[in-house]
Design goal:
This protein is α+β, with helices and mostly antiparallel strands and 604 residues long. It has a domain of 252 residues: Alpha/Beta hydrolase fold, catalytic domain (Rossmann fold), CATH 3.40.50. Helix content is 19%, strand content 29%. 41% of the residues are buried.
Length: 604
């Protein structure tokens, strides 16, 4: 049968635009047990499909005239590059010919050496296209969002190819009122040979309905653009080596507000730009992070949530004008919190030896503690998610780690926390450096960070530990397995150990799918490198984690047993999901991490 996805009714109620697709059917899903229940019995529930196993929608755009009782299926076959398969080179490479199949049947034990092919992470836009039949079918896409202009004469939709290499913004003009069948007008096409960012996809109409604004990463940074519906011309409203997000129009119209890190990747201020004039103005100069904002109904004032690395989020209000002084409204920190002698992170930029540009880092060190003749031991913290930002002057999601790093610094460690390649806030190239090789650029950046600590801080690089959760747990394993002479110990928390077992939406963007790109999964999955373990390893995982399921850590534990590895341990938390909820679990986990570091790095 058919299923309806996105749908939006026009302001007048006459028109409806919706996405329609054949029901893709049920995807094969895994199950997860829960051992602690009120009835004393083990229960199970289904969790998300694995990468390559999720059945995706293949949408069509349908316009309904609810007054004229007409239905129009809009033609998307002419969208730019929709029949051009950007993964054809990989599919051809990994699809054996008849002769190769015969050879495999004759030599069933044949294996590959796992070498990374030259140019495996290159932009293949200029490769010779694969032979494509004249009647090549359009690639499937999903309708991401729909927006009507205020008077209902135009509607815009954002479409994304299911392989996540292309994004299209299209419109339908319904203002003419003639009998012509409605058709799509392509407004913008974005192609990324790696993957389209899940950020920078905001779009909408101005209040007068004359302009469609949207965000795009086409220049390498997420910026704001305006498309004139009457002339069909597009112009950039922002440009430069910074990012723009969270766009909102002024109540009076014609002015777009947004957050940007224009002056410093780690400082986010509120700005605005005139749609017609293109003139930008900075509204705040608070020097930290404007986390969110809301304009007053008349547009004269703005409420902002603001924080720094040492100050939790607070509310401020100010006039919506350049140079206006913000007035603080809330004081959520307590006397007890302020009584602690927290160590403020130092923000540094470590030179890269890999041509990637400076690596932003937080460094925690108690400079009142002498380094001694050996130098201080080092702990490297790897943030999670991959695509997130930790090195910014704002109250981090990692506030617990912020507290823990103060504790470590007071015990004589130097803690460094880099925004390695893959992190957010630094543009498209920084984000996509990990395409088809997760764990490789990040380790190179870690190498540079440690070398920098040795050169500039006299750190003892014979005593280095690493820890992190989720993506940070994955990176901890990659470091322990691939740099055995560098890291004495590591704590991998809720780690991905085999990317073939993670979800489709995240993983397929970066590594494609195991069927299409097996080499990418092999070189990026820690379980394939477990033989390299030499140091002390702690693995912690919640048993009701439905994001990175505990099976990942348990499978790796079995692999370490098979490899006869020593000096590793696993701790499973029966009632914890991906992000722990119980304070006692957090306490237990961090006690174990501290014991690991003290035992292996600090002579404890």
């Amino acid at each position: 049968g058919k299923t309806i996805g996105r749908r939006a009714l026009s302001p007048s109620g006459r028109w409806m635009l919706l996405s329609v697709a054949d029901d893709p059917g049920d995807s094969k899903r895994d199950t997860m047990p829960a051992y602690i229940n009120e009835d004393g019995y083990v229960s199970t529930r289904t969790v998300r499909p694995k990468v390559g196993q999720e059945k995706r929608r293949d949408d069509s755009l349908v316009l309904l005239d609810l007054v004229g009782e007409q239905q129009y299926t809009l033609d998307t076959s002419a969208l730019p590059m929709i029949t051009d398969d950007p993964l054809a080179w990989l599919k051809d490479k990994n699809t054996p010919s008849d002769e190769e199949r015969d050879d495999e049947e004759e030599s069933p034990a044949a294996t590959t050496d796992g070498a990374i092919p030259d140019g495996s992470t290159a932009d293949h836009a200029n490769d010779e296209p694969a032979d494509e039949p004249d009647d090549a079918s359009p690639r499937p896409f999903t309708v991401e969002s729909i927006a009507w202009n205020p008077d209902g004469t135009r509607v815009a939709a954002m479409l994304r190819s299911n392989d996540n290499k292309d994004r299209w913004i299209v419109t339908v003009d319904l203002a003419s009122g003639d009998d012509a069948e409605p058709s799509l007008v392509p407004v913008h096409h974005l192609r990324d040979e790696a993957w389209i960012n899940w950020r920078y996809n905001e779009f909408g109409w101005t209040r007068d309905g004359s302009t469609l604004w949207y965000l795009s990463e086409e220049t390498g940074y997420g910026h704001l653009y305006a498309w004139d519906a009457d002339t069909g011309e597009t112009k950039p409203l922002t440009a430069g080596r910074f990012t723009v997000r969270d766009v909102a129009e002024s109540p009076a119209g014609g002015v777009l507000y947004y957050r940007a890190n224009r002056e410093d990747p780690g400082v986010y201020e509120l700005e605005r730009v005139g749609v017609e004039s293109g003139e930008t103005e900075k509204i705040t100069t608070m020097g930290g992070t404007v986390e969110s904002y809301a304009l007053s109904p008349d547009g004269s004032r703005v409420l902002v949530t603001f924080s720094t690395a040492m100050d939790p989020p607070e509310l401020y209000v100010l006039d919506a004008a350049p140079g206006a002084a913000p007035a603080r409204l809330t004081h959520t920190d307590t006397d007890l919190f302020r009584s602690f002698d927290w160590i403020a992170p130092e923000f540094v930029r470590v030179p890269s030896t890999h041509g990637a540009g400076p690596i932003p880092c937080r460094v925690y060190e108690d400079t009142t503690i002498p380094a001694g003749t050996r130098g201080k031991p080092v702990v490297l913290f790897s943030h999670g998610a991959g695509y997130t930002q930790h090195v910014y002057n704002g109250w981090s999601y990692y506030f617990r780690e912020h507290l823990f790093h103060t504790l470590l610094a007071r015990k004589g460690y130097i803690v460094i926390a880099p925004d390695f390649r893959a992190s957010a806030g630094y543009g498209r190239d920084w984000r996509t450096a990990i395409y088809r090789r997760m764990g490789t650029p990040e380790l190179e950046d870690f190498d540079d960070c440690l070398a920098w600590l040795g050169e500039t801080r006299g750190a003892d690089l014979s005593r280095v530990g690493i820890y992190g959760g989720s993506y940070g747990g994955f990176m901890t394993l990659m470091a322990m397995f691939n740099r055995p002479g560098v890291y004495r110990c590591g704590a991998a928390l809720r780690p991905v150990t085999d990317w073939a077992h993670y979800n489709h939406g995240y993983t397929s963007n970066i590594l494609n799918t195991p069927e299409i790109d097996p080499e990418a999964f092999e070189r990026s999955s820690p379980i394939e490198h477990a033989d390299g373990l030499a140091g002390a390893l702690l693995m912690c995982h919640g048993l009701v984690d439905d994001n990175v399921v505990a099976q990942d850590t348990i499978r790796l534990a079995q692999r370490l047993i098979e490899l006869k590895k020593e000096n590793w341990e696993m701790m499973l938390y029966p009632v914890e999901p991906h992000g722990f909820r119980e304070p006692e679990s957090w306490l237990d986990e961090y006690r174990r991490i501290l014991k690991l570091f003290e035992t292996n790095l600090n002579g404890g």
